[in-house]
Write a structure and sequence with these properties.
2 strands; Arp2/3 complex 21 kDa subunit ARPC3; two-stranded antiparallel ribbon
């Protein structure tokens, strides 16, 4: 049941990403709702199947974007790898972790996209890309991450109810 609800949630995030969220622009940057859903889902302690969520998110984004599927999968799986390895070892402050991983995840995904486009298309000015696309996208991700985290917190409470100790 949790897997089905997770896939549906990612599917809804992809639909919203491709229809509504891309219309909310700051300069040339747009928020990455699927990344925010993935990060918010993984930060809840009781969720399971983290690698599968990264793979599904990458596949779904790869289908709707012009980027290759292997690139989007690699980006989201790297985010999952970084999140799970650092989260287990270091931090337990939810809001700090949420904003940190939103920043890191945004940089990883957009950095891979920029590298691929610069390699394929050639001359892409780095500073213009950072100033006009990456930084505005990070700002939008930081704005949208709190509502996404709150909504997914309610979903995880429904899917994974707290265990009552007797």
């Amino acid at each position: 049941m949790a897997t089905l609800i997770g896939v549906i949630t990612l599917g809804i995030a992809v639909i919203l990403q491709s229809t509504l969220v891309v219309r909310v622009n700051l300069i040339h940057g747009a928020a990455d709702l699927v990344l925010l859903v993935l990060i918010s889902w993984l930060l809840h302690e009781r969720t399971q199947g983290h690698w599968q969520w990264g793979l599904v998110a990458g596949l779904l984004v790869g289908f709707i974007s012009q980027m290759p599927i292997w690139l989007t999968d690699a980006g989201y799986l790297i985010v999952v790898l970084i999140l799970r390895s650092l989260l287990v070892k270091i931090w337990h402050t939810p809001l700090l972790v949420l904003f940190f991983f939103t920043l890191v995840g945004s940089l990883v995904v957009m950095g891979l996209d920029y590298s691929y486009l610069a390699l394929i298309e050639g001359n892409r000015p780095l500073w213009d890309t950072i100033n006009l696309v990456i930084l505005p996208s990070i700002v939008l991700n930081m704005i949208f991450v709190l509502p996404v985290y709150a909504v997914l917190g309610e979903f995880t409470r429904l899917i994974y109810p707290p265990v009552l100790e007797v």
